[in-house]
Amino acid sequence: MNTTTVNRDPLHVAILKNVITVALSLAIIYINGTLVHVFRKHQVFNTNSRYILYIHLVINDIIMLAMMILLQVLSYILFTLNVSFCIVMLMLAVSTGLNNPLTLAAMALECYLAICFPLRHPQICTVRKTYIVITMIWVLSLLTILPDLFIIIATRPAEYFHSSAFCLWANVFTDPILAKKKDVTNILFLVIVWLILFYAYFKILFAAQAASVNAKKARNTVLLHGFQLLLCMLSYIHSISIQGLSILFPKDTLAIRYVISLLIQVMPRLISPMVYGIRDKMFRQYLIRYWLPLNSNVYPENVQKS
């Protein structure tokens, strides 16, 4: 059975790494949690398909960061984890990772419909249909990784699921066929999502009037979705980057693994709050009201979206 060998850091290094990761991740989770709270509190957001899809992206980021914190801290404290528990955590983390590009594709299509079919947009992008799309995203991501679980259950003895291992996907799902399947699935997801983003962007570019402020905003939003997708792609080269740099710097494997994980798994989660939480005028105004309640009179409930 092929597994990835992982050494342990000295105690003071392990503590420093965990403090940095947990502090940064909790700060991002707090910001994203504030966005979710503002979304749930105000009807103007939770009846709008655009914000519903956006908040789904934010919730995915929260779950992903929470799983990463839990797995990292437990791996430093216990080093090895129960395989069954590890499988549940990994599948949840991978599902949220697959959800992100699919949600970005749905958001790009919503922008396209809003600009190119403004009269039909309210009938097409209803709240009910938006939640159906979100459900389909979760079903698709789960159907993508459930075969891996079924193969492991079918090929491993019961004792395997009661054993312990360092909680990495390569250490648990060790069948080479599963690694190839994962690569093919990632490529397929990315190709489909990129095609949707390009289609939406160019349709908005050519179908909308050049002077339209909404059209310009929509084009910029789709471009931001493309940038977010590029960040999602970084997770697919996570293992390759670690392996390549570890060959060049064999003595710094632990530091390389930590820095790359921080840059690829944690830092991109800062982008989602900025796309709507800061860039979108209406969301920004409600956030200011939440953080600075004394100024709530400046932003009336019927504030209009820019």
Radius of gyration: 21 Å
Secondary-structure class: mainly alpha
Shape: globular
Report the count of strand segments: 2
Helix content: over 70%
Poorly predicted spans: 298-306
Main beta-sheet annotation: 2 strands, antiparallel
Give the percentage of residues in beta strands: under 5%
N- to C-terminal distance? 57 Å
Strand arrangement in the largest pleated sheet = 1-2
Mean pLDDT: 80
Number of helices: 13
Order of helices and strands: HHHEHHHEHHHHHHH
Would you mind describing this structure in some detail?
This protein is mainly alpha-helical and 306 residues long. Helix content is 76%, strand content 1%. A two-stranded antiparallel ribbon has the order 1-2. The longest helix is centred in the N-terminal third of the chain and has 34 residues, at 83-116. The protein is globular and about 60 Å long.
